[in-house]
Amino acid sequence: MATSNNGTYGGYSYNFVTCDPPDEYLCHICTLVARDPQQVTCCSNIYCKSCLDTLKEKGQGFICPTCRSSLEGKYFKDGRVERGIKSLKVYCTNTDSGCQWMGTIKNIDTHLNSCPYQLVPCTNECGEKIRRSKLEIHLTDNCTKRMVNCQYCKQRGTYQLITSSSHFDVCPDLPIQCSNDGCNEKILRHSLASHNETCPKAIVPCEYNTVGCNKKMKREEQEKHNEESMKQHLDIAMKKIDALQVTVLLPRKHVLKLNQYTQLKEEEEDWYSPGFYTSAGGYKFSLCVHPNGNGDGEGTHVSCYICLMAGEYDDTLEWPFQGEVTIELLNQLEDKNHKKDTVAFDESTDDDYKQRVTEEEEGGMYILGWGIHQLISHFELEYDAPTNCQYLKDDSLYFRVSVKVTSITKPWLTSAI
Q1: Last residue of a domain, one of 191, 215, 244
Q2: Percent of the chain residues past pLDDT 70, beyond the cut
Q3: Percent of the chain whose pLDDT exceeds 90
Q4: Contact 207, 221 (CB under 8 A)
Q5: Any keyword Electron transport (predicted)?
């Protein structure tokens, strides 16, 4: 039968100071000095209470192992024997570790509660058992759950966490070797990005890459490259200019007022602004507004579209039109919190929206517009105190249209008189 000195199962297996304990103190089941001794009435032998309980729980008949009589209700605690057992002298269970204590079984538990050689669980619950005399050193120097500060960022946490990869992978002050070949500097993680912007060993494109020089080099070699390639850079820049002849016109703003909003909404009529030019000699546009919405915004939003019109200077302009148009619904209370969206005319835009309309189409109001189905919902138009916004006032809406044109011009025609 398995036994444990510090448990309640089986008898005592201590090392006794004098000779072997008397046979009358031995359990006739586990053969050790009986713990909580019980005397049976059938043959007067002694058993550990835990040994009898285990025998009874086996369910194979509660029979005395010595005389085979039934033990049901036929045993009792033997106080005299227990007093004799508790007075037996034993050595500390930590004798092999150096403890020289000797005393009675009655007092050994009290001793073990203070024995410096006794193994005790770490109070930080790290899972280790340490000799009591070494516990303080363990908690200070060795416990994986002791609290420490990161040596770099000073963040506080358990030693197990602070020294793990999960912390070092994000520690902002951890010194990290620069990844640029030839750079031997160690940089704090939070400074790596700024270091790379100035690191002389970083690989960077030529400063003239936008005009066609595809050379890449270390940053420290840029100046030498620029000096050696000055003529080459000038040649490719001139070729780029000659090939593109690109003109970028800065945005020009136009403020347009829509009146009788309520009537237009109720009658579901579209409103077209007067035509306006992007610049002198530029493209002509009109703003189309659906007060009661269109497409995904029908019945719930105001929809806005920008329409290309037939203009006076169309013959000197390249088609289809390329650029960006920004439409703003203005807050009438102060110059902020305007509703804003940008419409792009680029390679992804259907060419039907980038071509000017004919006079016949314009007269019949058959105008294609490119824009936003849901510029603003109807309920957002009214006064809003927290934001100090009111887009609809006196039954009118104000729109501001800004056009940025990127066009390949016809310079040989623009100088005509």
Answers
A1: 244
A2: 88
A3: 70
A4: no
A5: no
